[in-house]
Structure formats: C-alpha cells, structure tokens
Amino acid sequence: MKVKTILISQPEPKVENSPYFELEEKQKVKIDFIPFIHVEGVSSKEVRQQKIDLSQYTAIILTSRNAVDHFFRIAEEMRFKVPDSLKYFCQSEAVAYYLQKYVVYRKRKIYVGKRTFPDLAPMLKKYKNEKFLLPSSDMLKPAIPKQLDKLGVNWTRGIFYKTVVSDLSNLKEVFYDIVVFFSPSGIISLFENFPDFEQKNTRIAVFGNSTIKAAKEHGLTINIKAPTPETPSMTMALEKYIKENNKK
Length: 248
Fold this sequence. Notes:
The chain is of the alpha/beta class and 248 residues long. Helix content is 34%, strand content 23%.
C-alpha cells in the first residue's frame, strides 16, 4: 500500500530545515505533527514535599531543555537566587546552549557531554565531591540512576515536571498511513485515548528499543524501526519505506 499521509506523535520542529519537511517535499507525502504527550510542571509545594532544598546543592545535572526550564521556574517560585558558583552538567550541547536563556554563559561553570548520558559520566566522576541535583520528569530512564549510583556520586533526584497524556479525541475519525512513535509514553497515550484502537492498514513506525517493546506489548505490528545501521534516523527509515512501497 502506498504512503500518502504520516502522523508524527511529537510537536512540529521549529527549525526551517527539518529533515521531515525535506521528506514531505521529496516524497510528495503529507506529514502532520500532533504531540501524544506533553509536559506539565509540578508546583514548588510538591518539590518541597520531596524534601528538596535548592540551597543544598553545588551542581545540577540537566538532561533536557524541559529540565532547564523547570529548574529555573521552581527556583523563581521558591524565590531562590541561583548562585553564580553553581556548576551545570549538561547532557548535550543543545541543552548547554539552551541554558543561555537563563544564565550568562561565559560567567558560569558549564560541563557538556557529547549526546547521551554515559558521555557525561567521566565529568561527573571528576567532580564527585559535589552535591548533585537531578531535576527530572516523573518518567526517568532507569539507566540514569544506575549510572549515577555506579559512579558513587552524591546525588538527589527531584521530580520537577510530569509527562501527561494529551487529549487526542479530534483524531477519532482520522486515518493516517503511518503513525510514528518515539517513546513508550506515546504508545500509552494512543491506547488511553482509544482503548479499542485497531491497527488495520495503519503502518507503525517506532524509534528505540523501549518503544519497540511497548508497541509489541500493546499488540501492534511494527512496520518501520529506527535506528538501524542502515537507517540511523527516523526520517531515513521513513524515506526507505516510502520509496519501497510507493513504487509498486
């Protein structure tokens, strides 16, 4: 079956040169972006109930832009003046760059990993005498606490925001040739919104092993997987599938 429509279960990219826009133009398909999950901040009261006192930490571990936004939001709500001496350990350059929204970059101690959390481990180990705060969502990859415990650093997790299922009721009568998922939360959202969902002719594309596992557990047939050695990105996997199916 030919592919004409694709639903990406994430917000629309803000950059003009997104590979999704290129894919849409090149393969003459329609791509829609609808986030299946969204993030909501928890209140400063809830953070206090976790027995977190921001003044007790000398370093902060930031794994995403959401973590940056919600750390500074909570600091503001608690009327806590973030000290210039605070050290920032950012999982990637994108996170470190985003930090500039809140701090004067050159005046701060900022340490940056390449891309994944393990890339940051050597730097965390080097500063293991610091007291680390990890602001996170209520859904945290189990590998992160494991890695921090293995490093033997003094760290505390604070749930500063939550991952919430979005209302998808407006999609009830809408059909897409391909639906793309990037996290188990997206799969959960689909079935919370549509408990009687039947895949029928919809092709399912998934990114990452945990998403593959969640899709299988919910009885979905997976048609497109990424990353693979041949297709390291989702857009490459989609393009390969479209080329193979649309020439028939």
